[in-house]
Specification:
This protein has 9 helices and 10 strands. The protein is of the alpha/beta class.
């Protein structure tokens, strides 16, 4: 008989660098329908050393990335082990670990999520499922967004599953097929400018609220070629570093104006990405 109950830990680190998110989740299949319950969950913030290392990792050499991958795998393994011990968890079916994305260039059949070396299973003494994106990219896929089928199975009552993180992405049904793609950068840009003010992020948009939209910057942002492409398509921090930030930085405007303008850009691109605006949306 097929298994109908799954006791797992999910582990994720996003490009917004908030920290390592862990969630103990119980899944079950009842009358052909998947259900889930989120049990213990926690976010472990990075210390400043790790924040700085991960921020500049996109420019690292192969040797530097090899060392970073090894050390980050050990970090992640330790965090997972502590989470299991702290919450007295047992009989886990798997630890499902995404790692942290450093490189994402699917056009070159390249994507790298550090923290997924085989040693991670030894560090936390569990069965580990990881490297979710690599095979899809090697076969010509985008490797992102990560979980459109999960959206379909778990949130079928919603027309759109919208994710706002380091980047925004969406998944939805078109002619009985699940469509998913990245929309635009979000916190990778917003946090970059908040950092320039000595802040981790713009709490509740208080800084951007005091800014004004610069129409020239907004028009140029909305004219970027990526937004004219049809799905499938995805983004990596390379896009932010090479296209978004240089464009914004050609204008001598305040950080408040940069934030307000980019928030408007995010809203416009999300609106354009949704074929029918009058539908049920879940944002996670």
């Amino acid at each position: 008989m097929s298994k109908v109950n799954y006791n797992v830990i999910g582990v994720m680190s996003g490009t917004s660098l908030d920290g390592v998110d862990l969630a103990h989740i119980h899944f079950k299949i009842e009358e052909g329908k998947w259900e889930f319950e989120i049990l213990e969950c926690e976010t472990i913030e990075y210390d400043i050393n790790w924040v700085n290392r991960l921020k500049v990792a996109v420019d690292s050499s192969d040797d530097e990335l090899t060392l970073l991958n090894k050390e980050y795998t050990a970090l992640l393994g330790g965090i997972i082990s502590h989470f299991i011990k702290k919450n007295n968890l047992s009989n886990l079916d798997a630890v499902c670990s995404h790692g942290h994305t450093i490189l994402h260039q699917p056009q070159k059949k390249l994507t790298l999520q550090i923290g997924n070396l085989p040693e991670i299973a030894t560090f936390c003494n569990q069965m580990v499922v990881c490297n979710f994106r690599i095979q899809d990219v090697l076969l010509g896929g985008q490797g992102a967004p990560l979980v459109p089928i999960g959206d379909q199975i778990l949130f079928s009552e919603f027309d759109y599953c919208l994710n706002l993180g380091g980047f925004s992405n969406v998944s939805f049904e078109v002619n009985n097929k699940r469509i998913a793609f990245d929309i635009s950068p979000v916190n990778t840009v917003l946090n970059f400018y908040a950092n320039q003010l000595g802040l981790d992020y713009d709490n509740k948009g208080s800084i951007s609220r005091s800014g004004k939209i610069n129409e020239n910057v907004l028009q140029q942002l909305n004219s970027i070629d990526f937004y004219k492409k049809s799905f499938p398509k995805s983004l990596g921090f390379e896009f932010v570093k090479e296209i978004i930030l240089p464009l914004i930085e050609t204008y001598s405007i305040s950080i408040e104006d940069k934030l307000q303008t980019f928030i408007e850009h995010i809203a416009i691109q999300i609106s354009l990405a949704l074929p029918n605006k009058k539908r049920e949306i879940i944002n996670y």
